[in-house]
Design brief:
The chain has 368 residues and is an all-alpha fold. Helix content is 67%, strand content 0%. Pfam families: Voltage_CLC.
Length: 368
């Protein structure tokens, strides 16, 4: 027939969506609110940690010169350990350890988190643990704190459906890591690569928005430099690249050792029966004292120490892409991407070759 060979050409209005119907728009407002609240909370969290760790660099040398002061200090540590035990005991599963593993279990529908009790307990217990100098980073508590803030928003104000109820928690995850490091790209990539494995626009656009807002809040109080700023102004000569491979091998081996130790901690502590489980924290709190007397600058997250040695061992427990993005934001330059990619790839491969897992958090899910 005559009309059979006639082609129908669609117009733009047949292809493009209707204006102001982008489904992601409904989540942008709440993602901004989550970013603001998370940024403010993590700002206080970071400020207390920074001031306390700075104080330790004064206290420990003073105790080194006046050893008798160790007696009241150790008594104070016992009080701190008792407080931590009492705080975490009612919600031990959610408050003890990093919290990221528990969040992954929540997103998989295998666990339920009590938002507000876990939020304030994680905040206080993390401060009581990090401030005495334990070798713990602020990023993992920040991730769980941000997730709980997002979950509280859903519980109190939005009441999303079962299909969408985890979205606000995911925005909080990105905002929490972003505020911890003042690194919004790393916060978003951590969520996508480690937690959701999904680049759905309903996830990554509001998550990036929340990350940017929370990072901006920290910029207002701490300045625009990331909290772990490692300025590198010179390019690495090509002749040094073989040494990057050697360093990657060493870091990959250390990554495997780290995973081996981390996955055995629960089993090791289960053998300590003469101390109640909720007070096991007294062991590392006491063991860190000799380290502080030797060098207080390596206590806590060791940020000051890292600034001196420009350590790139992030790939021990972060996935490769997050490690590269995070260090890129810390360095403030893209010129180091090739050497960072090389050393991260080698470290990742060596860790996997030895039997390590690509995600420590996924491995921890299998412990129970």
């Amino acid at each position: 027939m005559k009309g059979e060979n006639t082609l129908y050409h669609k117009r733009a209005r047949d292809i493009l969506g209707k204006p102001f119907t982008f489904i992601v728009s409904r989540y942008l407002g709440v993602s901004i609110a989550i970013g603001i609240v998370t940024g403010l909370v993590i700002r206080v969290f970071r400020w207390i940690i920074d001031r306390t760790l700075t104080l330790l660099t004064i206290i420990y040398p003073f105790m080194g010169k006046h050893p008798w002061l160790l007696i009241p200090y150790i008594l104070g540590i016992f009080i701190v350990a008792w407080l931590i035990g009492k705080i975490v005991k009612p919600y031990e599963t959610d408050v003890v350890r990093s919290g990221v593993t528990q969040l992954k279990a929540v997103l998989l529908g295998k666990h339920r988190i009590h938002r507000w009790p876990v939020l304030w307990r994680k905040f206080v217990a993390s401060l009581l643990t990090i401030c005495p100098g334990l070798f713990l980073g602020r990023e993992r508590p920040s991730i769980q704190i941000g997730a709980c803030i997002g979950a509280c928003f859903n519980e109190k104000f939005f009441h999303l459906t079962d299909k969408d109820k985890y979205l606000l928690m995911e925005y909080g995850v990105a905002a929490g890591l972003s505020a911890a490091f003042s690194a919004p790209l790393a916060g978003t990539m951590f969520l996508l690569e480690e937690m959701t494995h999904n680049f759905n626009s309903r996830i990554w656009i509001p998550a990036l928005t929340s990350s940017i807002v929370s990072a901006f809040i920290t910029f207002l109080f701490f300045g625009t430099k990331p909290c772990l700023y490692i300025p590198i102004t010179t390019k690495l000569p090509v002749a040094s690249y073989p040494w990057l491979i050697v360093a990657g091998v060493v870091i990959g081996f250390l990554a495997y050792c780290f995973q081996f130790a981390a996955l055995n901690l629960t089993w090791w502590y289960s053998k300590i029966t003469f101390i109640p489980k909720e007070f096991h924290n007294i062991i590392p709190l006491l063991l860190v004292i000799p380290v502080g007397l030797w060098n207080p600058y390596i206590l806590g997250g060791s940020h000051d120490f890292i600034k001196y040695v420009t350590n790139m061992s992030l790939s021990t427990n972060w996935k490769a892409m997050v490690a590269i993005l995070l260090v890129t934001e810390m360095v403030g330059s893209v010129e180091q991407i090739l050497p960072m990619t090389l050393i991260t790839l080698v470290a990742y491969y060596v860790n996997r070759l030895l039997g390590g897992r690509p995600s420590l958090y996924d491995a921890m899910l299998e412990e129970n």
